[in-house]
Amino acid sequence: MSVQDVIKDQVSKNRVVLYMKGSPDFPQCGFSANAVGILRACGVEGFFSVNVLENPEIRDGIKQYANWPTIPQLYVNGEFVGGSDIMVEMYQSGELQKMLEKTTA
User: Fold this and answer.
1) Which of 21, 42, 64, 77 is the most exposed place for a label (fewest CB within 10 A)?
2) Taking the model in full, what pTM does it have?
3) pLDDT tens digits for 83-94?
4) Average pLDDT score over residue span 9-25
C-alpha cells in the first residue's frame, strides 16, 4: 500500500482527521496546538490524529495529497479543510462549528 493509499484510507474512514506535529495531548508546534484547541472548542474530542513527526513518509505524502505545503492539515468527512490559519478564520466566522456539527449528526 502506497503512502497516498494510507492517507486516503485514514481520511475516508474517519470523520475528523488532523495531521499534526505531536499528539492532541502533547502538540509539538504552536500551529498544531492551535488546531487541537480549535477542534476542542468546537466540541470535537474523539478525532483521529496522525503525528507526522513519527512518519517522514506521511509528513511528505500529506503535503502532496492535498497540494498544501504546511502542517497541520484538517480533513472533515474526507474533504481537505485547510491548515491552522484557515481553521482560525472558519472558527471565527462560525463556519467550522457548522461543518463539524454535521459530522456528529
Assistant:
1) 64
2) 0.94
3) 999 999 999 999
4) 97
Residue 36 CA to residue 6 CA, distance in Å, equals 22
Question: Does residue 50 contact residue 18 with C-beta atoms inside 8 Å?
Answer: yes
Provide the 3-class DSSP secondary structure of residue 16: strand
Residue with cell 507526522: 52
DSSP 36-88: HHHHHHTT--S-EEEEGGG-HHHHHHHHHHTT--SS-EEEETTEEEE-HHHHH
- Residue 9 phi/psi, 5° resolution? -65, -45
Check: CB of residue 67 under 8 Å from CB of residue 4.
Answer: no
CATH 3.40.30.10 holds for 3-104: yes
